[in-house]
Write a structure and sequence with these properties.
Order of helices and strands: HEEEEEEH
Radius of gyration: 14 Å
Helix content: 10-25%
Shape: globular
Number of strands: 6
Distance between the termini: 22 Å
Structural class: alpha+beta
Strand order of the largest sheet: 3-2-1-6-5-4
Amino acid sequence: MEYAKSEKEYIKEYQEQGYTHNFRAQDNSLINLETKKNYTPKDIFIKKEFRFEGMSNPSDMSILYIIETNDGAKGTVLANYSPSSDTVMAEFFKEIPKSNFEHN
């Protein structure tokens, strides 16, 4: 039986494939922390996503997004979806057009 990878293992795997940029959601945009460029939801393309449930509380959930921007920046975004989490990241990702999601 193969064990499930952790968020950190997936992040490391995708960083090795060139997904090295880090992003933060703010004011309905995603900000590239290296270049300071802002992206709207339509500028983001989801290459892959992985869902994780909390070890002690299954309602604590996170999603790791593997993304590429419209100008070619590649990175990972870990969004927390627990009941007590900040909703800015969740709201941003809900606004990304469905056509910008690749099928996993």
